[in-house]
Amino acid sequence: MKVLVTGGTSLLARRTAEALLGRGDQVVLLQRHASPIDTTQVLGDVRDADAVAGAMNGCDAVVHCAAKVGVMGAWSEYHGVNVDGVAHVLHAARRADVARVVHVSTPSVAHAGRSLVGAGADAAVTGRSGAFYAESKAMGERLALHAAGDELPLVVLRPHLVWGPGDTQLVGRIVERARAGRLALVGHGNALIDTTYIDNAASAMVAALDAVSPGAPCVGTAYVIANGEPRPVAELILGILHAAGVHAQPRHVPLHVALGAGSVVERLWALGRRTDEPPLTRFLAEQLGTAHWFDPRPARDDLGWSPQVGIDQGLALLAEWFVAHPA
Amino acid sequence: MTATPPRALPTDEQWRRWGIDPAWSRTVEVTGADGTHTWHVLDHGPPTPIGTVVCVHGNPTWAYLWHRVMHRLGDRYRVVAVDQLGMGWSDRVAVRRYAQRVADLGDVVDALHLDGPLILIGHDWGGAVSMGWAVDHPDRLAALVLCNTGIAVPAGRHAPRLIRLAASGPLNGAVCRRTRMFVDGTLALSWSRVERTSRDAFRAPYRSAARRTSVADFVADVPFDATHPSAAAIDAVASRLGSIAAPTLLVWGASDPVFDDSFALDLAARMPHADQHRFAGVGHLSPEEADVAGVVDTWLGEQAIAPQPSTPSSAQIAPSAAYAPGWAALDALAGSYQLAFVDGATGERTSFAELHERITGIARGLGALGLQPGDRVAMLTPAGADLLAAIYGVWRAGGVTVVADRGLGLRGLGAAVRGAQVQWVIGPPSALAAARALRWAPRARQISVGRRVPGTLATLAELMRSDAAMPAEPQPDQPAAVLYTSGATGPAKGVRYTQRQLAAQRDALAATYAITAADRLVAAFAPFALYGPALGIASTIPDVDVTKPGSLTADALGAACASVDATIVFASPAALANVVRTSGGIDPRTSAVRLVLSAGAPVPVATLEAMSRRCPHAALHTPYGMTECLPVADVSLVDIRLGGDGRGVLVGHPVAGAEVAIAPLDLHADRPVVLLPAGTTGEVLVRAPWCSDGYDRRWATEHDARPVDEQGVRWHRTGDVGRLDGEGRLWIEGRSVHVVHTDHGPVTPVPVEVAVELVPGVERCAAVGVGPSGCQQLVVLVEQVDADAGLADEALSSAVRAAVGCPVAAVLVAPTLPVDIRHNTKIDRTLVAQWAGAVLRGERARLPW
Question: Which pLDDT tens digit goes with each residue over B682-701?
């Protein structure tokens, strides 16, 4: 099988590509900057329909990982990558007679600001103000699900808080802030948070590629992907810090303070025309201050996938990586 | 006479707003004795229904009353709910008498060509009309269901005040027709429990005075004296109710101020084969307020699979021993001056001869005062010599003792006495006054214990001296007792026992514990003192506050043992724990004790071990059982020591005569149960000759609790989860409501707790689930006296995770665990789960205990 993986510089896309190559599939990467992976690479932007069509040429399947994440940037940028980009991928996939499409989304398309306890993959909602990432990803997911059918077997995966060795988004930031003595826990850190170890997220992409075919129950459906092992957020963060060899005791910030501070920081960052990601965002405060865990059964039943690496095992692998990659 | 044309029917949009498919609504022209009228009916069913249900509303409701029944049954049954003439959206008509309305029902049934056997459901005066049709058409009646209705004002009860007021001439027009008072009043009886859209639907056909004419006429047709034009017709139906052979269900809202419980009992007396289901706290509009539809559905299903509905649903085995009544030992010892009972508080000693004399006196006296076999007698006397004599006296007279556990509190006690509908109350003046003031049993005859007070028929002491004729000895299968114990959830249920079942229980205890005439009993758990006279052995209750069994001291126990030279001690786990706490070592007064029994809650092994050191000659046993069936199994401390660490708590082998089986956790009483093999965890089912008869006036509860297996054997569900091991021993793993349903399957709490309690420093813990069933996460709460409630530290979390064989999402600590007041050992895991759920959502949650 020849698979196009977009957004190849992200950790998830890289691991997915490696997993596919590892089992003998051919992989084409589409991304803006060169990736160290030894496979066919097309340098380009998903906002460029021609670039997407060119990369798709001759492929049997596509895993669409490319996305504009974070909170910084203009709406036009989010819309261009997370909505138009999806439209270009879908269009090119139809043209190229691609038989399998995995669209990578996020659980935040469906929910914001409330506790998720054993939740399912509810329908994406749009119409929130301010949250450009979630809003644009929701629109993109709708486009993708709308296109799904026997003509274009497509499944949506929503991996939740992916982490692992080499991850700069979650692990990197927590460790960096702790080393700087500026890590704060939202609330008591009691909220149960499910996360996804990177290898599990990659194996879910591969399992979804194999499962999605005309008539399969997963076609046109969204699935939350996570380890299915929620832990109190304080315990997870301490686990990551231990793995990194950092011995810091995070401060506690009450949830409402964190939410308020997140909003203020976001605005200040925007006013200051900074383009890097702020240290605290409202989204992050919500994510870390309220429970977020999901029902693992739909993904297991329909995709035949279950995580292979447990949280504790993942933390041990992370510790090994930190030993090999000292700061 | 010209009929007012029916107002335009509701629009499709209106029907939909009321949750009714507009297609169900239709009209039918019906020709009867006084011409042709247009009826409105709601008619809904599948293409090939398995039966036809006709629903008849009362006054001032209409067919909408049955919307829940229609939704519930309509996928299998054709359900036709009629609007009576003058009511709902049917033709408005002139005054119609009862006999005419019965004929009307026949006419509309015929016009709809409902020819097959009918299941008839009636509410309020629709029930009376249904009964009228039923007695006239015995061959066409498949089943009869009556909700909050009546056919006659029960003896000793005044006619419902609201109806009497509304029916009286001058007020009738004002209350019922010119104003909405009667329509709204009826809704108000159930106000808080009826939703806004339903209120709107109920009122819709009665918006103008002209449309309420029949509401007034209906009320005026209620006969309050024999001269009323409808009195003769209603009386004739009432007198023929006994001829109804079809299965009948009385399903009742118990808080209806109009057709209250006494109407249900009146109908039950007229139709003795009727099943009853009583909804506590539900008012007049029971089909709207409560799950009448669900009960009716289950009940109808049961009628179909079990053609003899009156077969007792008891989970019993025929007893092997010959029946000897509960008072047989007392009769045998009638001339004996052996010690029978010592009152721990007063030190008063009673011989068997004296006790026998008192009991026979009470039986004679009650008979002379008119106690009928089956009469229910609330026993409000505190535990002691008087209670003992009164209970055996009532039994011997053929009465049914209604006993409520003191742990229920005053409210629970009141609810129990009211629910049991007692005819008699025996108690001290204070309790009698409370029973009267709180209207627990306003019409019951009262016997005072102690001084004579106005309003009582006699004192217990007077009865004891009675030399009236001895009432006939009750039959073995006659009801003997209704026991109310504090349940974990919801209102207490009355557990029914017959004389035979009580006798079998006595025999089981005697056989299990080899009790002979040489034994003497200390019952630190008061109800157990009752077994003394039944077993023909001396007994006593220690001087202790019976509502706080945990206050029993080692000295009080020693004194009680000395008073009877006890060989057997029965104490709750909490009492035993306090004895151990307050004990200074081996007490010579307990040297004759050969057996210590403890039950009522899980008994910590450490408590048993400690007690064993203080009573070195005694064997320690814990019987396993419940209010509905005791004993089921038994285990000794020696067995527990040898049993090793298994999953859960070892409760031992079933006792001789009892059987235990394991059913799947998702067991459903509507289907035959496939029993599970040894080693598999599931819900524990039991049966024994001493298993209770069932639940009092709780047909659906009883049905749910008494499933049938594939061999047709009926069992009692314990609500406990456990398994049988290869040796046939029973292990308990928790309560079925506390099972954690994870995405990998069910996890039972007790084995997890047993494993965690092996972690150094952990005394006690609770394993609970958070999140939705099917993907719950397991959480362990550890008791740590000096800890702030919250997440456990890293070391404890790791140790707990390492000890438990399955994933644990979080380990929490709290300075205390919520335990029951009575036993101090039953952990309220439901409360723990609620708190843990809030904490782990990231909320600020104070400990609710």
Answer: 999 999 999 999 999 999 98
pLDDT in tens, B67-121: 999 999 999 999 999 999 999 999 988 888 999 999 999 999 999 999 889 999 9
* Structural tokens at position A148: 């799904």
Window 234-253 of A, Cβ < 8 Å to B = 234-235, 238
Domain covering B646-734 in this structure, CATH number: 2.30.38.10
Burial B526-541 (b: 16+ CB within 10 A, else e): bbbbbbbbbbbbbbbb
Tell whether domain B739-840 is in CATH 3.20.20.450.
no
- Check if A289 contacts B (Cβ < 8 Å): yes
The SS3 assignment for B121 reads strand
Into how many domains does chain A fold? 1
Task: For residue B429, count other CB atoms closer than 10 A to its CB.
Answer: 18
Distance CA B139, CA B459 (A): 52
Which one of B771, B807, B842 has the shortest CB-CB distance to A191? B842
Our answer to whether residue A197 is catalytic in this structure is no
Distance separating alpha carbons of residues B749 and A219, to the nearest angstrom: 39
Map out the domains of chain B as residue ranges.
Answer: 12-156+228-305, 354-500, 646-734, 739-840
Q: Decide if domain B12-156+228-305 falls under CATH 3.40.50.1820.
A: yes
Encode B627-665 in three state secondary structure.
CCEEEEEEEEHHHHHHHCCCCCEEEEEECCCCEEEEECC
Rounded to an integer, what distance in angstroms lies between the CA atom of residue B53 and that of residue B357? 57
Look at the pTM and tell me if it is higher than 0.90.
no
Residues B398 and B351: beta-carbon distance below 8 Å: no
| CATH 3.40.50.300 holds for B354-500 | no
State the pLDDT confidence band at B312, using cuts at 50, 70 and 90: very low
- Could you tell me if residue A179 is inside a domain? no
Q: Which domain holds residue A18?
A: 2-162+196-227+294-311
**Strand, helix or coil for residue A308:** coil
Question: How far, in Å, CA of B654 to CA of B514, rounded?
Answer: 16
Closest alpha carbon to B41 in B109, B99, B93: B109
Asked if the Cβ–Cβ distance from B791 to A232 is below 8 Å, we say yes
The answer to whether residue A82 scores a pLDDT higher than 80 is yes
Sign of CA dihedral B805, B811, B813, B817: negative
> Per the CB < 8 Å rule, is B743 touching A300?
yes
Q: Which residue of A has its CA nearest to B795?
A: A235
Q: Identify whether A107 is part of a domain.
A: yes
Q: CA-to-CA distance for B593 and B569, rounded, in angstroms? A: 7
Contact A297 B797 (CB under 8 A): no
pLDDT digits (tens, 9 = 90+) for A100-136: 999 999 998 987 667 899 999 988 888 876 688 999 9
> How many angstroms away from the CA of B765 is the closest CA of chain A?
19
CATH number of the domain residue A204 falls in: 3.40.50.720
Instruction: Identify the H or E element spanning A88.
Output: helix A85-95
For A188, the closest of B774, B790, B797 (CB atoms) is B790
Question: Considering only alpha carbons, which residue of chain A is nearest residue B743?
Answer: A297
Looking at residue A103, its amino acid is H
Intrachain domains B354-500 and B739-840 with the same fold: no
Give domain status of residue A233, yes or no: no
ipTM: 0.92
Residue A97 falls within a domain, yes or no? Answer: yes
Amino acid at A99: A
- Provide the strand spans (E) within B184-259: 248-253
Helix (H/G/I), strand (E/B), else coil: B14: helix
**Contact residues, chain B to chain A, C-beta under 8 Å:** 743, 770-772, 774-777, 790-791, 794, 797, 807, 809-810, 837, 839-844
Is residue B823 very low, low, confident or very high in pLDDT (cuts 50, 70, 90)? low
**Contact state of A291 with B841 under an 8 Å Cβ cutoff:** yes
Is the CB of B790 less than 8 angstroms away from the CB of A235? no
